[in-house]
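Predict structure. Chain length: 319.
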Amino acid sequence: MFPQVLRATFFPEDASSADILMKNADQAMYAAKNNGRNCWSCFTSNMRAASEIRSKTAYELRDALRNQQFYLMYQPILELATGNIHKAEALIRWQHPEQGTIYPAEFIAIAEETNLITDIGDWVFKQAVNQVALWQTNFDIEFQISVNKSPKQFINKMSNWVNHLRELELNGRSIIVEITENLLLDMHELVIEKLLNFRDAGVQVAIDDFGTGYSSLSYLKKFDIDYLKIDRSFISNLDSESNDSILCEAIISMAHRLGMKVIAEGVETDSQKQLLVAMGCDYAQGYFFSKPLTADKFEAFLLQQGQINPYIQSSTAIL
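Prediction complete.
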């Protein structure tokens, strides 16, 4: 039987020592695995450069956590039927001392590879919980904040978000945990245990970027998924005649029949919004409504929308 992944590096072009050749072969193997199984990859100098960048970023990520270089932005999630905003998604940013603002797409994968994702994810969760507690007290008792949870975090026994909510005496519905479709295909016992713990504690769960993975409908019901988030790739070209319109309408209809709500991501135009309203979509987020905002600017946005009392003191001052 042939191996599922083949990798290659060449002597003496790539290196002259056995140790370096083995490291090169490992890098080629990781590249092959990223492309899927039953494939092969040859080592290139670009792989070495990419490896050095990953190592440097991993080192700096540890400093970032210690030195409080991370911060959260909040993107409003609008209820399409009423225009009300009772939800927001928490989005991490890294304020690098030299490079400025770094977005999660540039460092989350490295955090996952180096197992830093659990500490970073727990930091995000606790910051979001502190914020939602203040907003519930000062503005809206039903307010919810969504936080993304990496598949890597599900297999870490040390991280228990439900216990933290209980310690703060917060309702489980204060938080929506966003997971990927592919996580549902991983029947690791810790994944099952934590999803069921969320359900029992009242924590709601959303499938992020729905439509891009391979989730089974049976899993959606088994774990009582509460929301499907339609991936922005289906929204970006949305018009009444497009295949994306047919797919979005089918997802919304299916979700409603299964007792789930639907959130459309990446809404950028009024026509997209109107089409989603006509389809019966429940919620939407995107630059048409608002870009991600810092906590104080989020409160100003709610004030501008007439959704909070202008005489209530900003809650961000006591964070």
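Summary: The chain has a mean pLDDT of 83.
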